[in-house]
């Protein structure tokens, strides 16, 4: 909450410039929204206000109608449009400068892996997140693990059971007053076996979607996973990457926001799932290129199981001495409210075809490395 009188210094702002708005999206967009909500409000503490220098329009609460707002970004986003439409009301109107066409990054990947885009049917913007999760449970998760869709929905609706795959911090008060007293916490066995599942990286554009899927896999199905988000500690991240590299963990959950700051390159990714369309189109290309980073069979090379903070190995090093590795497969979930992000990834022309009301729900891209974005083929 804003203290009374603390926002008076924002009451007479006449020009606002928001530079690199896409970077602010990767930080905390709510802070920028809060600043705009407190712009050009009528001062409530006039003791330090010289009203002889205040324009009449600002005293009457019409400062927003005379404020000029400039938002600069590499691309447009629904959050930016909402900010412009709700909190910018210049009397002279507004306009946008946009590129005529996006080429897309589907064809820029260096791997020839097939890329499948699956459209999620949604009834409205408010229900889009839940309906995407229901689609994930009913279609994508059974295809990845072989689990029955009804069993997956029942497990998601069940009460969560906290699972400790790592020993919690030691507590005082054990036997003899020493640390580490008491038995280790019980780790429930996995509900299903995932030994046959290829190592899968799931990329999330939203942290809230990350939490929803993480709780389903870890706390409902009790499957150990590697977590890589902006709140993961370095120790947990290093351990998870190591176990995923060795195949002990079959799932790696990765957020776009962490990739924005750290640009990790994970190795031994055999399957890529984009739970939503990445906002940064280049991130999608980089994620698909991780399907090339396969380690040779046998024990992990020294240092590969740990990895430094800048990534694991150089991109483009496929496994297998004397033969190319399986390029893997990429799957992307999208719906009609992600049209702007889809346009940047698939290209403007392809996005229009994929979002058409009469279009099919599944589209296959078979890209040639270095070629322009190909036309999608309906599956």
Walk me through this protein's architecture.
With 379 residues, the protein is α/β, with parallel strands linked by helices. It is 30% helix and 11% strand. It has 12 helices and 10 strands.
Secondary structure topology:
Elements: E1 15-18, H1 21-25, H2 29-37, H3 56-59, E2 68-71, H4 78-87, E3 115-119, H5 128-145, H6 149-157, E4 200-204, H7 207-220, E5 226-228, H8 234-246, E6 251-255, H9 256-262, E7 271-274, H10 281-289, E8 329-334, H11 339-346, H12 348-354, E9 362-365, E10 377-378
Parallel strand pairs: 1-2, 3-8, 4-6, 4-7, 5-6, 7-8
Antiparallel strand pairs: 3-9, 9-10
Helix pairs in contact: 5-6, 10-11, 11-12
**Which segments are poorly predicted (pLDDT under 50) over 5 or more consecutive residues?**
297-327
Total strand count, please?
A: 10
Strand content range: 5-15%
Specify the helix fraction band: 25-40%
């Amino acid at each position: 909450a804003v203290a009374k009188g603390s926002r008076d210094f924002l009451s007479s702002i006449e020009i606002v410039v928001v530079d690199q708005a896409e970077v602010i999206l990767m930080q905390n967009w709510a802070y920028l929204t809060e600043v705009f909500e407190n712009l050009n409000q009528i001062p409530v503490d006039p003791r330090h206000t010289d009203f002889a220098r205040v324009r009449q329009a600002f005293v009457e609460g019409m400062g927003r109608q005379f404020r000029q707002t400039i938002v600069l970004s590499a691309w447009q986003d629904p959050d930016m449009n909402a900010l412009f439409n709700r909190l910018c009301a210049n009397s002279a109107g507004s306009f946008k400068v946009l590129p005529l066409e996006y080429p897309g990054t589907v064809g820029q990947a260096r791997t020839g892996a097939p890329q499948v885009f699956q459209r999620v049917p949604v009834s409205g913007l408010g229900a889009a997140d839940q309906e995407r999760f229901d689609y994930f449970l009913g279609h994508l998760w059974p295809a990845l693990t072989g689990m029955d869709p009804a069993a997956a929905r029942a497990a998601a609706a069940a009460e969560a059971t906290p699972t400790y795959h790592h020993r919690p911090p030691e507590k005082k008060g054990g036997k003899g007053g020493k640390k580490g007293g008491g038995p280790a916490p019980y780790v429930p066995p996995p509900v299903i076996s995932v030994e046959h599942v290829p190592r899968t990286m799931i990329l999330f554009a939203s942290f809230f979607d990350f939490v929803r899927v993480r709780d389903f896999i870890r706390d409902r199905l009790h499957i150990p996973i590697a977590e890589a988000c902006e709140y993961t500690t370095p120790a947990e991240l290093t351990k998870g990457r190591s176990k995923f590299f060795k195949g002990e963990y079959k799932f790696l959950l990765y957020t776009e926001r962490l990739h924005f700051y750290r640009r990790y390159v994970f190795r031994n990714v055999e399957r890529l799932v984009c739970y939503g369309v990445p906002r940064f189109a280049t991130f999608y290309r980089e994620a698909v290129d991780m399907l090339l980073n396969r380690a040779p069979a046998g024990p992990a090379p020294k240092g590969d199981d740990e990895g430094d903070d800048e990534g694991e190995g150089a991109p483009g090093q496929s496994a297998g001495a004397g033969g190319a590795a399986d390029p893997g497969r990429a799957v992307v979930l999208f719906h009609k409210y992600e049209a702007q992000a889809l346009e940047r990834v698939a290209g403007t022309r392809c996005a229009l075809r994929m979002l058409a009301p009469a279009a099919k729900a599944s589209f296959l891209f078979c890209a040639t490395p270095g070629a322009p974005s190909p036309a999608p083929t309906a599956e």
